[in-house]
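Following up on my earlier thread - several people asked me to post the actual chain instead of describing it. Fair enough. Here it is, all 155 residues.
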Amino acid sequence: ICICICICKNRFVPLLERRIKHPDANVRQYLLSWVKLLESIPNINLIEYLPQLLEGLFLMLGDTTAEISREATTTLSGFLGDLYICICNFLDHVGKVDFGTLSQILVYYCTNDIDEYAHYHALGWLLQVVYLYLYLYLYLYLYLHLSSFSSFSSS
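Reply from S.P.:
Thanks for posting it. Predicted structure:
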C-alpha cells in the first residue's frame, strides 16, 4: 500500500494536474472519478495538491453537463472540509496548505467573468480561506504568547 501511495503522489497526481483542464465532458467525468477515488483513500492527502487541481475543478463548475458541474461542486465541498480538518490538526498538516497560491487562484476567479457559478464559488472559497488563515494566525499568536507567559510565570 505504501508503494501505491508513493506512486499516486509522485506520478499520478501530476498527470491529473496536466489533464484537469481538458474541455471534453467524458474526460472531465473520468478525472473527477479519479480525484474522488484518491480523496477517499485515507493515507493520501490531496490537500497539498489542491492548488494544482483547484483551477480545473473551478472550470468544471461551468460545464454544460449538469452531472459534471454537480460532481465538481461536491468535490470542492469535500476539499473545503479537508482544509478545515487540516487547520484543526495544524501541527500535522498546516505546512502542506499553500494559502498564497490558493488565494491567487481564488482572486482570479473572483475578479474575472469566466463563469457566474465559478465566480460565486470562488467568492465563498476566498471567504473561507481568509477565515481559516486568520484562525490559524490567531491560534499561533495566542499559543506563542501564552507559552511565553507560562514560562515567565513559572520562573
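DSSP finds seven helices and no strands in the chain. That should answer part of your original question.
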